[in-house]
Design brief:
Elements: E1 16-17, E2 26-31, E3 34-39, H1 49-63, E4 70-74, H2 97-113, E5 119-123, E6 127-128, H3 130-136, E7 140-144, E8 149-150, H4 161-171, H5 173-182, E9 185-186, H6 188-194, E10 199-201, H7 206-217, H8 222-237, H9 240-256, H10 258-269
Parallel strand pairs: 3-4, 4-5, 5-7, 6-8, 7-10
Antiparallel strand pairs: 1-2, 2-3, 8-9
Length: 278
């Protein structure tokens, strides 16, 4: 088993490294109920096959963990959160692009979007092209004010495929088309105004802002948060009757849980609830 997929079997420690830092592309840490995935692929964190491969391993490590209540994805110590694809890889891609890039990249991004717990992208620098597609696959985005976001592929004659779909669901077709057709990038204030990010922070504070948001999320019911994610996604993916039918099933799961009754007891006792995730 290579280092990128190796699990640490020691007792959990603060910011415990679960993926060996020597791999140089993605690091995974767990601190209590919060996991952090740090991209570590050069100053601009370019999207490459090795980086995607290790990101996918980190996602797979977290997907089955019921003890993790929130995941933060950030750009580590790099200048950018992720400045997009390494376009040097494009030289050899033509008819076989789906085999060697498109399908694998889309699979990794879908796996990120399908993580069952809430996810936050801490955009501590520019998030452009493929990098912004990764951020769009997270549930929430925290952006530092001086960073820019966008899908500028049209400058190269390219297209952000899954990004075009996700961004349309966030901001509607008219603004999505403007972004895609012009390849424009947005400032922090514009991104917040357009609904592409949830919060803005001062320079160098995106990760701190994401951690603050995560600290609030993990205090809430972990079952209810996971099921809320399921229903919000269903509201976009299903016909309304099917989504409402699912909501009935999900509500029964909530009432079947011990956590709901812990929350009710804590409410009447006027103390914080101690949710166990069952």
């Amino acid at each position: 088993m290579d280092n990128a997929a190796k699990k640490d079997t020691r007792a959990p420690t603060s910011a415990q490294a679960l993926i060996d830092r020597a791999t140089g592309s993605v690091d995974l840490y767990v601190d209590g109920m919060i996991a952090e995935i740090a991209l570590s692929n050069g100053a601009m964190n370019l999207v490459t096959r090795p980086m995607l491969r290790q990101l996918n391993r980190a996602i797979s490590e977290l997907a089955g963990r019921n003890d993790i209540r929130c995941v933060i994805l950030h750009g580590g110590t790099a200048k950018a959160f992720c400045a997009g694809s390494d376009i040097k890889e494009f030289n050899d891609l033509r008819q076989d692009a789906s085999e060697f890039k498109i399908l694998f990249e889309d699979m990794v991004i879908r796996n990120l979007a399908r993580l069952p717990m809430p996810t936050i992208a801490a955009l501590n620098g520019h998030a452009l092209g493929g990098g912004f597609e990764i951020a769009l696959a997270c549930d929430l985005r925290v952006l530092q004010r001086n960073a820019k976001v966008g899908l500028p592929e049209s400058h190269l004659g390219g297209l952000a495929g899954n990004g075009a779909v996700r961004i349309t669901r966030l901001i509607g077709p008219s603004r999505a088309k403007e972004l895609l057709y012009t390849g424009m990038t947005l400032t922090g204030e514009q991104a917040l105004d357009w609904g592409l990010v949830n919060r803005l922070t001062d320079e160098g504070q995106a990760l701190a802002g994401a951690r603050e948001l995560a600290a609030t999320i993990i205090q809430r019911g972990p079952i209810s948060n996971r099921l809320a994610k399921t229903l919000v996604d269903a509201a976009q993916d299903m016909a309304i009757d099917a989504a409402l039918s699912l909501s009935t099933t999900v509500q029964q799961q909530i009432f079947d849980s011990n956590d709901l009754h812990r929350g009710v007891e804590a409410f009447f006792a006027k103390r914080p609830a101690d949710f166990k995730g069952n």
